Amino acid sequence: MAANAEPGFSTRQVHVGATTVPASPRALPIYLTAGFTFTDLDESAEHFGTGAGFGYTRTGNPTVQAVENRLASLEGGDQAVLVSSGQAAVTVALLALAGAGDHIVVSEHIYEGTRGLLLDNLARLGIETTFVDTSDLDAWRDAITPRTKALFAETLSNARNDVLDIAAVSAIGRERGIPLVVDSTFTTPYLLRPIEHGAAIVVHSASKFLAGQGAVLGGVIVDDGRFDAAASGHLFPHLVHADRLGGASYAEKYGTRARGAYIRESVAPRFGPAPSPLNAFLIGQGIETLSLRVERQSQNALAIAQWLENRPEVERVDHVGLASHPHHDLGARYLTRGTGSVFTVTLRGGLEAARHVVQSVKLITHMTHLGDVRSLVLHPQSTSHSARTVEERERAGVFPGTIRLSVGIEDVDDLLADLEQALVGVPVAERETVVL
C-alpha cells in the first residue's frame, strides 16, 4: 500500500474515530454523562460561541463523536450525525431540507414507518409527498415541482428487493439542485456507498446491521459535504440567508459543509433525538465486525434463496442475487460485494402456509427486526405492511403467503435444515398467478 493511501474498509471500521477520544485508550470509552465541566467562563463562552469542545451530550459527546467519525469514513461522507433511532435519522434528514409548503418525491417501496411519517406527521407540518415507482425514472422526473426539496428512496426495497438506480435518480435531482436522500440500512456501507454514486445524504437505522447484536436503537445521517449554494441555494434559504440575529449564514460559515452543519447544529439538537453514549458505544462495537458479518450474511442468504427457489412449496423468491429477479443486472452493478441478506419468499399455500412456517421454525426467530446476527422471520401482510391496501401490498411484493427472512451468521446448513423441517406439511399447490 502506498504511504498516503487510505486504509481498507475493514481497517477503518476498527480504527477510525478512536484517536478523537482524549488519552486515546485502545477500546472506545463510554462518556456516560449529561454534561461536561468548564474550567472557566471563557471556555464556556467559547463553546457556546464556536461549538468547540463538549458542553452537553445532546449537542456532542466524545463517545458519540468517535462513532460518527467512523461512520462518515465508512460511507465516504464529510460528516455523520448519530441520533437515537433510524426513524429519527429519516425525520432529521428530511426536516433539514423541507418545511411548510414544500414537497418531497419518494419511492413507494419504503419502510412503513417512514411512509407513515410522511403521510401522517410531515403532512401535518405542511410537507407534501408524491410517491413514485422506484424503477420509473420518468416518474421521478415528472413528479418534481418548483416546491420539491428532496428525493428519497431505499437502496433495496422492503419487501421486493428492488434496487435503486442511485446514479440515475441523483442525476435527475441534480438537474434542479435537489438532493437525493438514501436509506441504506439494508445494504450498509460495506455493500454499497450511495454518496459515491451521487446521493447527497445517507441514513441508516444503526439498530440493524451496524450494531448487529439487536440490543440497542440508533440512527445515523451522513452528509456528502458537497452543498452547492449557487446551484441549490434558492431552494434552501435557511442555509444561504443570514440567521435570525443577522449573523453569517451556514453557507458563509461552512461553505460546502453547510447542510451537514445545519443538521448537526440546528435540527438534531433542537428536535432532540440524542443517542445515549452507551448505545453509541455498542453501535461502535458492532461496526468493528461489520464487514465480517455482512459478508457471511450475504453468502448465507444467497444460498438459502437459491435453495428455496427450487422448493415445490415456494411460489417465488424476491432476492436480487437470483438471476430470476428483474433487478438482478442492476444489483450486479451496484452490489459487487454481496447482495444483502433480507428478502421475501412467497409460499404457494397462501396465508396458512406462511403461518405454518413462521410457527414451525426452531432456529430462526420470529420477531420484528432485521440485520441481526441471528436469522429472523416475519409475515409482512399481517405486520409491517398491514396498514396498506391489498393493491399497495401486491405492488410491494407482499401476498398472503409471503414471509420475510433476515438471514444471520449461523451455519447455513443449520438454517437450511430448519427451513426444511418447517416446510413439512406445507401444501404443494398449483402455481398461483402473481401480478407484479
Using brief descriptors, characterize the structure shown:
disordered C terminus; alpha/beta; 436 residues; 7-stranded mixed β-sheet; 5-stranded mixed β-sheet; 12 strands; globular; 18 helices
Task: Please give a structural write-up.
The longest helix is centred in the last third of the chain and has 20 residues, at 290-309. The strands form 2 sheets. Strands 1-7-6-5-4-2-3 form a 7-stranded mixed sheet, with helices on both faces. Strands 8-9-12-11-10 form a 5-stranded mixed sheet. The protein has helices at 9-15, 41-50, 62-75, 86-95, 112-122, 137-143, 166-174, 188-191, 229-232, 237-240, 250-254, 258-271, 277-287, 290-309, 328-334, 350-360, 390-395, 412-423; strands at residues 79-83, 103-107, 128-132, 148-154, 180-183, 201-205, 219-223, 314-318, 342-347, 365-366, 376-378, 402-406. Residues 431-436 have low confidence and may be disordered. It is built from 18 helices and 12 strands. By secondary structure, the chain is α/β, with parallel strands linked by helices. Helix 1 (9-15) packs antiparallel against helix 3 (62-75) and helix 16 (350-360) packs across helix 18.
List the helices and strands and how they pair.
Elements (H helix, E strand, L loop, with lengths): L8 H7 L25 H10 L11 H14 L3 E5 L2 H10 L7 E5 L4 H11 L5 E5 L4 H7 L4 E7 L11 H9 L5 E4 L4 H4 L9 E5 L13 E5 L5 H4 L4 H4 L9 H5 L3 H14 L5 H11 L2 H20 L4 E5 L9 H7 L7 E6 L2 H11 L4 E2 L9 E3 L11 H6 L6 E5 L5 H12 L13
Helix pairs in contact: 1-3, 3-13, 16-18
